[in-house]
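Hi P.,

Sorry for the delay on this. The queue was packed all week, but I finally got your sequence through. Input first:
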Amino acid sequence: ANATPDHFDIWWLGQSGFLIQWNKSLILFDPYLSESLTKKYADTNKPHVRMSELVINPLLLDNIDIVTSSHNHTDHLDGATLIPLLQVNPEITFVIPEANRDFIIDRIKCKHDFPLGLDAGEKIEVKGFTIHGVPAAHNTIERDERGKCRFMGFVIQFGKWAVYHSGDTVWYDNIVDTLKPFHLDVAFLPINGNDPARGVAGNLDTKEAAQLGKEVGARLVIPHHYH
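Then the structure:
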């Protein structure tokens, strides 16, 4: 694809993983590029089997500028994905919820000051991207002892564009007021719903994702977290 400032490209990499290319820069959201959960939950009552084959070996993604983790669940913070990804991208910026730093350091085996931590309401600028932290509720807005969010989404502004990656979230008070001012071009929203019988934390369902996209004025909603 042509890498020019007047458009950007999106690839879905399975589950909640999305790769965006803009102006010769690449940002990767919540990659899960292994079979960690399939192995973990084999022979249980909640098997985690992919709907499709793995898209790419993380060792081949050696040109990534920014990678995110929205929270500590394995399909958003996978050691088998991130450790090789960091190895082949020594200059990468790793954006995380600050509340999760110690957990992430233990899982990813990186230096304590290597990740770039954000909290809800904070923003940073990295390689032409402005990254805003916003709360996520999975199923509640959970905070650490310092009041920092453990579950987050990210709004990324670049050029004339604004994109929202939700992480995992249900609908919460003020989510519309939080997102609407960004005039989102694209919202990546989960659609697997909130069924306690599944024994996993919940998310928006398809109807809620469509409604949220409409209420915040997003030009396009792309579903995730159903893989």
